[in-house]
Amino acid sequence: MRKKTTALAAAVAIAAAAVSGAAPALARTAYDVPGPGGELAPETIDAYLGDVMDATGQPGMAVAVTRGDDIVHTAGYGHDSAGAPVTAETPMRIASVTKSFTAMAVMTLVRDGRIDLDGTVAGQLPGFAMDDPRSDEVTVRHLLNQTSGFSDTTIDVEALRDASSLTEYMSLLEAGSLAADPGTDHRYCNVNFEVAARLVEVASGRPFDAYMREAVFDPLGMARTTLDEAEIAPADGLNSLYGLWIPRAEMPGFRTFSGAGGVITDAADMGRWLTAHTGGGAPLDRDLLDTMYAPSDVDDYAMGWSPEPLAGGGELMVHSGNLFTYSAIQGFSPETGYGFAVLTNGAALTDATYPVLLGLAALSEGRQPEAPGSGRAAADAALAAAAVAAIGLGAVGVARSRRWALQRAGRPAWLTALRMVPVLLPVALFALYPTAVEALSNGREVTWEQMTYFPLPLTLTLGAASAAGLATACSRVVRTARVRSHP
């Protein structure tokens, strides 16, 4: 889950774009941007986010903007799944944005000499073993840079989701192997940060959530940030179903105590977190912070951060997070000292957080932002129309199946079977749907259950086309058999 969206989200968005066409954009508004050296005004942020909410139809969104040591503005917009207004203190899941928090926890232990950043994981973490001798060469730096060789293609990540603790997680990891030699290739894999979280437990002698509280959250004043759902439970997130936002319980796997995606926080606390990077007060010295931001030798991904170029020049250090009902993104500019966090309680085929992050960055630099498009609404409308059309064509195919059979009564059976192929193509596509998305996702593991969350409109439309094709094919087979048995 990095930069613009998760690999899964990117893959299904490709399919959505194919049917949605060009999305109408938000009408251009001239915002009151700061001049050289000036500061972005809260009123400008509110005006921009108000337009964004109107254009994107997001249910709820919260933002934090910082500059240096100062929190410029935190605010919430829209509502949660229970209808309550979203505020700067509404708890949100931030998914893989968690990784930068886990990296900071690890680096505090590096600071204290309790973790050797370039030492092997096997030498510092009892119980770490895999069915691959190369795993003995994986270092802590490899974990945080995601260059360990861990991959969804060689580790049963579905089985790992059943782990009830990080200790059990480690035992389930033993059957996995590496997809590449450590340090030679970047592969985004959540296992890296779950192993890092377990290493934090062993090195600190504290449960992961307790150490995170003591070493990261409390020093930054993040009183409403946690890894424990029993302590702070966000409302259910929402998925878009053909334009209607429906509440959904989040899928398990990146929730309580997860070092890869378990943090629950709010915009106000994210403002405090960002000032640790844009100003001061971080529990790490500058040299260790710079180590966190430095890319590896094989990819620009650092330790929970990635550089993202800006249209106006310069770059943001960013990390995104996408669950199945919540999305988030954070970024800060080393040049301007601005930091941004965008959190939303809705997940759909198009991600709203990334363009908002870029819009806020543009405003902070005195530029007018790109107008966010209503891509979700366009995609939902196109997919709904496609589903209705598929059902209609299926009904016509079934109704005309006897005529179709009579027209082919005297033809060879193989030729009749060949003419069935077009109507069965949607069936084949639907059967291979998760596998195809997995291939587009660079091997990230994809399940049928996952495809019923934010890709739900696409899944239902493909299902409707498949059902229509199958009904037509079956009706034609039955009619053909009857015609040939009673010429």
UniProtKB/TrEMBL annotation:
List where the protein spans the membrane. Answer: 381-401, 413-433, 453-474
Q: Which domain of life is it from?
A: Bacteria
Q: Which Pfam families match?
A: Beta-lactamase (PF00144)
The chain positions of domain Beta-lactamase-related read 46-349
Does this entry carry the keyword Transmembrane? yes
- SUPFAM superfamilies assigned to the protein according to its UniProt record, in alphabetical order: beta-lactamase/transpeptidase-like
- Leader sequence residues: 1-27
Is the keyword Transmembrane helix in the record?
yes
User: Keywords, A to Z?
Assistant: Hydrolase, Membrane, Signal, Transmembrane, Transmembrane helix
User: InterPro entries, alphabetically?
Assistant: AmpC-like, Beta-lactam-related, Beta-lactam/transpept-like
Q: Name one GO molecular function term.
A: hydrolase activity
Tell me which EC number(s) this protein carries.
3.-.-.-
| PANTHER family reported for this sequence | BETA-LACTAMASE-RELATED DOMAIN-CONTAINING PROTEIN, D-ALANYL-D-ALANINE-CARBOXYPEPTIDASE/ENDOPEPTIDASE AMPH
Task: List the protein's name.
Answer: Serine hydrolase domain-containing protein
From what organism does this protein derive? Answer: Nocardiopsis mangrovi
